[in-house]
Specification:
This protein has about 50 residues and is of the alpha+beta class. Helices cover about 40% and strands about 15% of the residues. The chain has 2 helices and 2 strands; from the N terminus they run βαβα. The relative contact order is 0.25.
Length: about 50
Amino acid sequence: MPDLPIIAQTAYALQHEMEKYGDIFDDYITKPINEIELKQKIFDVMIF
């Protein structure tokens, strides 16, 4: 089964929480979502 990139979305993220889940998610974004930042994160995880 191919890997599926996952970008987590959260209302807020503490650095130690994101380090804890770093093995599960490829990246994360916090609210309010910045369209340009989201597009960049999608681009980053789609590069193989």
